[in-house]
Design brief:
4 domains; Alpha-Beta Plaits; six-stranded antiparallel β-sheet; 26% helix; 19 strands; five-stranded antiparallel β-sheet; 369 residues; alpha+beta
Length: 369
């Protein structure tokens, strides 16, 4: 690319002949697509330039993934343009197009953490006037199959079916600072999140530092909110990535009338699978409107159903015209209605309203207590 202008920023852009060591400046070139230039690139001259890029910069890898979908499908191009513009000054944001049978067209976005995810979503809604629904955040798992093949899973729909030898989940080294009065509740919370206590130090008479190893998937949902609420806002949390460890994880599918709905699938620990299935099945029973036929809602791990709720059918009172008379007449009418409901169930489809997805996938509510 041809360099058109070079200058320094002090604090306004000022045109200059060259840039010196330690100066902050700018370059104006003929680059048409801003995605050709990334944060961390080394700029050098075409002739007799540098042989290798400057070190010291490592491209950040996403730690938490979540799907972002516009509530109004017509906003999809606007969301795409908005993500492109945000990526200009946020090198850690990664995204790719994704299609969900339930939520339509959207993007699978990668973030450094939960705070990064919340800030990005807030900016998209505030600066670009978008109404968005975000799926439950999840982390990257590495699945090793019995035949030795290794699969990277960033979405529950990518979780393989065959015989699984091992699942590796990311873990973080977390540091919690809090008043000593709350040691008990913090320990209880970390144990429910499968945490391992590494050590504890008293910084003063009434302040303590606790160090834990926690699975990233457990703190990627509501850990920080629960920590703040249980300590009345006094606790602070800091964490950093600390490798991977094997985990006893399973994929829980939600079936509506026998068909899996990909938007409600989740990868959870085996001990929490039943709680998650019961909670989501119960929530969907309240959110999905009643149909002309009975609709079973099932939570399943593979072919094994672990929880079930049923949405009762809307029934017409077929006995309203019967005043007294023989019981066999009433029984015949009820049997005829039952046969009709059975036929409707065979051909009927369940349409899940958008409001049900928004409420069930709301990231502001606790997933598993």
């Amino acid at each position: 690319h041809e360099m058109l202008e070079v200058g320094v920023i002090s604090p306004e852009p000022v045109k200059a002949g060259d840039l010196g060591v330690g100066e902050v400046g700018y370059l104006i070139t003929g680059v048409k697509d801003v995605r050709q230039s990334r944060v961390g690139d080394t700029v050098t001259s075409q002739h007799h330039g540098a042989q290798e890029a400057l070190g010291g910069y490592k491209h950040p890898l996403p730690m938490v993934y979540s799907g972002l979908y516009p509530i109004d499908g017509d906003d999809y191009p606007t969301l795409r343009d908005a993500l492109e513009r945000l990526q200009l000054n946020d090198a850690a944001l990664a995204y790719e197009p994704e299609t969900s049978g339930a939520l339509g067209f959207g993007f699978r976005c990668g973030f450094l953490g939960l705070l990064h995810m919340e800030i990005t979503r807030e900016r998209l809604e505030r600066e670009f006037n978008l109404d968005l629904i975000s799926t439950t955040p999840n982390v990257v798992y590495h699945v090793t199959m019995d035949d030795g093949s290794r699969i990277e899973v960033t979405n529950p729909s990518e979780y393989p079916d065959g015989k699984i030898k091992e699942v590796l989940e990311p873990v973080v080294k977390a540091t919690v600072l809090a008043p000593s009065d709350y040691i008990g509740v913090i320990m209880e919370l970390c144990q429910t999140k499968r945490g391992t206590l590494l050590g504890m130090d008293y910084l003063s008479e009434d302040r303590v530092e606790m160090r834990y190893t926690l699975p990233m998937g457990e703190i990627a949902f509501d850990f920080f909110d629960q920590l703040k609420s249980r300590t009345k806002g006094y606790a602070s949390l800091n964490y950093e990535f600390d490798g991977e460890q094997p985990g006893d994880l399973v994929k829980v599918d939600i079936l509506l009338q026998g068909e899996a709905v990909d938007a409600f699938s989740a990868i959870v620990h085996k001990d929490a699978a039943y709680s998650y299935g019961v909670m989501l099945a119960g929530k969907l029973r309240e959110l999905i409107p009643r149909q002309q036929f009975e609709v079973p809602i099932q939570a399943a791990i593979g072919a094994r159903v672990i929880a079930r709720e049923t949405i009762r059918a809307i029934r017409k009172d077929v006995l309203a015209k019967c005043y007294g008379g023989d019981i066999s007449r009433k029984r015949k009418l009820l049997e005829k209605q039952k046969e009709g409901k059975k036929r409707m169930k065979m051909v009927g489809r369940v349409e899940v309203p958008q409001e049900a997805f928004i409420a069930a996938l709301s990231t502001g509510e606790s997933r598993v207590e």
